[in-house]
């Protein structure tokens, strides 16, 4: 799905199709709504965003979308827009920005700038991370992964993440739950993972590996049964984990992890941070590059 959307972006940018236009959208798209009453004056309405997406991507009949959010971006004047894009191959979150004049859209990431550009996020994560971890707590490098157990890209990335952790034993690695709304059992998977992690740190890493391996066999209807069995296989007591996963405090713990991710602009999974440096669009083929980032980060003071 990543490759699919990337090809769309390249086509759109090359052909200069990123211009706001108004036309009626198909009935499968969200109903037209004005901007919220308290929204900034330059924030586009949902109707405008939907029309933009229709004009930009409507030539692909198998592609549909749902607008997820329209909100002020972290940069003054810009509006951040997220939409769930879907076709027969799956779903992925699309994020872009509209300019104050309402005439342009910007695709891509807004990256931090300054003499120490990654320090603010590094400090924010250091204060907020609560997930299971491996490696020395006093390590000069902390790797934080925000992951979703139902996410195919997370499953594909997991062997590379494991190889990175094995290759950098002096780095601290922390996993934070970030179940995506588009996945129908991800939140439940996160609850089970949260409880397994609290019961046994060793069992947690086995649990997420086994869950990724069984990902295609789990459905919303069978999630409790499958996850309970996987918790047992990982070395935790499945029945106790299932009871824990249903508790309000577990839901609150998962929601706190999601809030932490959103506070550092996580919108898709897997997203990694290496001492605050964001690694989005994780590529399983770039292990050497990620190792270089870890080793470089360890030398920075």
Account of the protein in words:
The chain has 301 residues and is an alpha+beta fold. The protein is 43% helix and 17% strand. α5 packs across α8. The longest helix is centred in the middle third of the chain and has 16 residues. It is globular, with a radius of gyration of 20 Å. The N terminus is likely disordered.
Strand content: 15-25%
CATH topology of the largest domain, which one? Glutaredoxin
Return Rg in Å.
20 Å
Count of the separate structural domains? 2
CATH class of the largest domain: Alpha Beta
- What is the end-to-end distance? 38 Å
Total DSSP helices? 10
Q: Which class of secondary structure composition applies to the elements?
A: alpha+beta
Order of adjacent strands in the largest pleated sheet: 5-7-6-8-9
Mean pLDDT: 87
Portion of residues within helices: 40-55%
Helix/strand order: HHEEEEHEEHEHHHHHEEH
Task: Give the tally of β-strands.
Answer: 9
Principal-axes shape call: globular
CATH superfamily of the largest domain: Glutaredoxin
Q: Mind summarizing the main beta sheet?
A: 5 strands, mixed
User: Runs with pLDDT <50, length 5+?
Assistant: 1-35
CATH architectural label of the largest domain:
3-Layer(aba) Sandwich
Secondary structure topology:
Layout: H1 2-15, H2 46-57, E1 64-72, E2 79-87, E3 90-98, E4 105-107, H3 119-128, E5 133-134, E6 142-147, H4 152-167, E7 172-177, H5 186-199, H6 201-213, H7 223-234, H8 238-245, H9 248-263, E8 271-274, E9 277-279, H10 287-299
Parallel strand pairs: 6-7
Antiparallel strand pairs: 1-2, 2-3, 3-4, 5-7, 6-8, 8-9
């Amino acid at each position: 799905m990543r490759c699919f959307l990337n090809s769309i972006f390249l086509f759109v940018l090359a052909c200069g199709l990123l211009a706001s236009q108004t036309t009626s959208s198909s009935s499968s798209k969200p109903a037209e709504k004005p901007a919220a009453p308290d929204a900034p004056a330059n924030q586009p309405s949902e109707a405008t965003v939907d029309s933009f997406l229709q004009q930009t991507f409507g030539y692909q009949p198998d592609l549909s979308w749902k607008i997820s959010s329209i909100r002020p971006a972290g940069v003054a004047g810009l509006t951040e827009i997220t939409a769930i894009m879907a076709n027969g191959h799956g779903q992925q979150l699309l994020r872009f920005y509209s300019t104050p004049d309402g005439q342009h859209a910007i695709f891509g990431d807004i990256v931090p700038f300054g003499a120490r550009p990654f320090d603010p996020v590094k400090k924010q994560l250091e204060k907020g991370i609560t997930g299971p971890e491996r490696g020395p707590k006093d390590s000069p490098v902390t790797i934080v992964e925000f992951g979703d157990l139902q996410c195919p890209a997370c499953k594909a990335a997991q062997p590379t993440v494991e190889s990175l952790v094995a290759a950098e034993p002096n780095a601290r690695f922390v996993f934070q739950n970030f179940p995506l709304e588009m996945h129908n059992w991800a939140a439940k998977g996160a609850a089970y993972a949260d409880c397994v992690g609290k019961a046994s740190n060793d069992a947690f890493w086995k649990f997420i590996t086994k869950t990724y391996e069984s990902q295609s066999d789990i459905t919303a209807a069978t999630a409790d049964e499958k996850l309970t069995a996987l918790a047992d296989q990982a070395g935790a007591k499945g029945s106790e984990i299932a009871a824990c996963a249903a508790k309000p405090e577990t839901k609150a713990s998962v929601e706190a992890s999601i809030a932490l991710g959103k506070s550092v602009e996580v919108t898709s999974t897997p997203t990694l941070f290496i001492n605050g440096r964001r690694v989005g669009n994780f590529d399983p083929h770039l292990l050497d590059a990620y190792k270089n980032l870890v080793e470089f980060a360890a030398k920075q003071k």
